[in-house]
Amino acid sequence: MSVQQQLIQLLEQKIQQDKLLLPTLPDVALKVRQRSAEADISLLDMADVIAQDPALAARMIKVANSAFMGRSIKVNTLNQAVTRIGLSQIRNIAIAMALEQVFVSKHKQVQQQLDALWQSSVQVASVAASCLAYYNSREARSGLNKDVMTLVALVHNIGALPVVAEAEREQALLGDPRFLLQMATRLSTEVSMRILYAWGFADEFYQAALQWKKLQPDKPGPGYTDFIRLAIIARDGYADKELQQRLLQYYVAMQMVPQEDFMQHPEIQTVYQDVRAVFS
C-alpha cells in the first residue's frame, strides 16, 4: 500500500469515527442567522449586528454598491447598505461574505491549500450565480434566488476544508498539494453533510453537497445543484468527459444557458464579473 493510499485510509477512518475537527461558522454569521429568524427584527437591528465585525460591515457596503445588487447610486454607511440589500437577502449575503474567515490556518502550506479551496468555491459561485441570472431573466418564476445560489455554491464542497486542515496533524499530507486537494474533494461529501447539519442549513444546501458530483440533472428541475454542475462543467471539472458533454447539451436544451460555450455569452460574462468583484 502506497503512502497516499495509507493517508486516504487514515482519513476515511477519521471521517467514519467522527474524529475530524469540523469548522464552525464565524460568530457574526451565527448572530446574523439567529437575529434574521426573529419576526420583529428591523433593518437597523441587523445593521447593529453586522457592525460588530468591521470587516464584514465594509464588505456589506461593497456588496450594496456592486452591480450584484443592480444599483448605481452609491451608499456610504452600513445602515444605507442594509436598507438597500433588504432583510430577504441580508442573511445569505452576510453569511457568504463572512465565510472566508473559516478558510484559515496557521500553517503556511495548509493556508495555501485553503486559499485554493476558497478561490475554487468563489469561482463556482460566480459561474453558478451568473448562469442562474441568465435563466431567471427568461424564467421569472423559477423560484431560485441569486443570493441563495451564491451561498449554496460557496459551501457545496465545504467538507474538503477539514480534510485539508487535517494536514496540520498529518505532516506527510503536505508533500503533494495537488494530491491533497484531489483527496479532500474525493472525501468531502460525508463531511460536508455533517458540517451543514451542524450549521443548521436548509435542505437545498444538503442536496447540493450530496449531489453535485453526480453527472445527472435534478428531477424535477432545474435546481441549485444544476447550476453548480454548470460551473464545474465550465471548469472542465468532471473526469467523465462524455457524460459531461451530454449533461451540458441537456442544460442547453433546457435553456438554462444559451450555448455550449456559455461563459462567452455577454450577459453571463457580465454577471460573472460582477459576482467575482464582490469577493475581490
TrEMBL record:
Family matches, as PROSITE patterns: HDOD (PS51833)
Database matches in InterPro entries: HDOD (IPR013976), RNase_Y/CdgJ (IPR052340)
Residues covered by the HDOD domain: 22-215
Source taxon at top rank: Bacteria
Pfam families xrefs: HDOD (PF08668)
Record-given protein name: HDOD domain-containing protein
Record-linked PANTHER family: PTHR33525, RIBONUCLEASE Y (PTHR33525:SF3)
Alphabetical list of Gene3D superfamilies matching this protein: Hypothetical protein af1432
